[in-house]
Design brief:
The protein is 59% helix and 6% strand. It is mainly α. Strand 2 and strand 3 form a beta hairpin.
Length: 276
C-alpha cells in the first residue's frame, strides 16, 4: 500500500546513475559530469555513472564489457533515479510509483550476472530506505540500508572491478547515524560514527568479501596504481577514495553538523564528490 507522509531531512543512501547526454566510453576519459557521475554511451543508452562504475570500466577489457552490459539495464535504473528525484521534490506518491516500476523492471530482466543484479538491488534498496525514512519508518529504513550493504558485499565479491563500490559501506554508517539522531539515540549515533572513523583510519575494513578477503580504504591505493596514469579530472575524483585527510575532514564535519542541528544536513549535501 502506498504511504503518504512528510518529506524528512535524510537524503537517500543511494546515488543511482542519472540519465543525461552521453560520451563515448572508447575514449576512456572523463568528459563531463552530472549528479557527480561520469557519462558514457553504451549501445545507445545514455547513462551518467557514479565514479565507482566509471573506474570499473577503466580496469581493462572485462571492466569495459561489464559496464557496457550493465548499461543495458537502463529502464530499471531510470525508474530508480526518477523515484529518487521525485521524492526529493516531496512528490512521494509519484516517487513510490516509480520505485514500484523499477522493481517490476528488475524482475522482468533476462538472466544477468549476479554482480549486475547486486548493483541494481543495492541502488533499489538505498532509495527504498529513503522512502521509508520520509515516513519516519526508521526500522524499515535501517533494514533497507542493511540489505543495500549486503548487496554491496555481493557485488564486490563477484567482480574485482567493482572494488570501489565498497566505499558505500562506510557511507551507510553515516545514514545509520542520522537515523539514530532522529530517534534521539546518542549511543547509536556514537556507535555508527565510531565505525565510520575506524574505517576511515584503516582500523576496520569497509567490508569482507564472501571469500573472507577484507577490503580497506588502503586497498584502493593498489586499485588506482593498477589503472595507470589518471588525467586531472580523474585524479581529483580519486582523492575521495585514497586521501585520508579528506576522509577525516569529512567525518569531523559530519560530526559537527550532526551535533549542532536538530536535522543534520544530508551526506550528499556535504560531499563535494560522491560515489553509489
Amino acid at each position: 500500500m502506498q504511504r503518504l507522509g512528510k518529506q524528512s531531512d535524510l537524503e537517500t543512501a543511494s546515488r543511482p546513475p542519472a540519465m543525461s547526454s552521453g560520451t563515448d566510453l572508447r575514449h576512456e576519459k572523463v568528459i563531463s559530469t552530472r549528479m557527480q557521475g561520469f557519462q558514457i554511451d553504451a549501445s545507445g543508452t545514455n547513462l551518467a555513472l557514479p565514479p565507482c562504475l566509471y573506474f570499473a570500466a577503466r580496469t581493462g577489457d572485462f571492466g569495459r564489457s561489464w559496464v557496457r552490459d550493465f548499461c543495458q539495464c537502463s529502464e530499471p535504473l531510470k525508474a530508480i533515479t526518477r523515484a529518487l528525484n521525485l521524492m526529493r521534490l516531496r512528490q512521494l506518491d509519484s516517487g513510490y510509483a516509480s520505485l514500484l516500476k523499477a522493481r517490476q523492471g528488475i524482475e522482468r530482466l533476462p538472466p544477468i550476472p549476479n554482480s549486475m543484479r547486486s548493483v541494481l538491488e543495492r541502488y533499489f534498496c538505498g532509495v527504498s530506505a529513503y522512502h521509508s525514512y520520509c515516513f519516519d519508518d526508521f526500522d524499515d529504513a535501517e533494514q533497507k540500508l542493511t540489505e543495500s550493504d549486503n548487496w554491496v558485499v555481493e557485488a564486490v565479491s563477484e567482480c574485482d572491478c567493482l572494488l570501489l563500490l565498497a566505499m558505500d559501506s562506510q557511507e551507510f554508517c553515516y545514514y545509520h547515524a542520522r537515523i539514530a539522531h532522529k530517534r534521539s539515540n546518542p549511543e547509536d549515533v556514537r556507535k555508527w560514527i565510531e565505525i565510520a572513523e575506524a574505517m576511515a583510519c584503516n582500523r576496520q575494513p569497509l567490508l569482507t568479501t564472501r571469500a573472507g578477503r577484507p577490503v580497506w580504504f588502503s586497498t584502493f591505493d593498489t586499485f588506482f596504481q593498477l589503472l595507470g596514469p589518471l588525467d586531472a579530472h580523474e585524479y581529483a575524483i580519486s582523492k575521495e577514495f585514497v586521501d585520508p585527510n579528506a576522509r577525516m575532514a569529512f567525518l569531523e564535519d559530519f560530526r559537527r553538523r550532526l551535533a549542532g542541528s536538530a536535522a543534520a544536513p544530508s551526506v550528499q549535501e556535504q560531499r563535494a564528490i560522491s560515489t553509489l
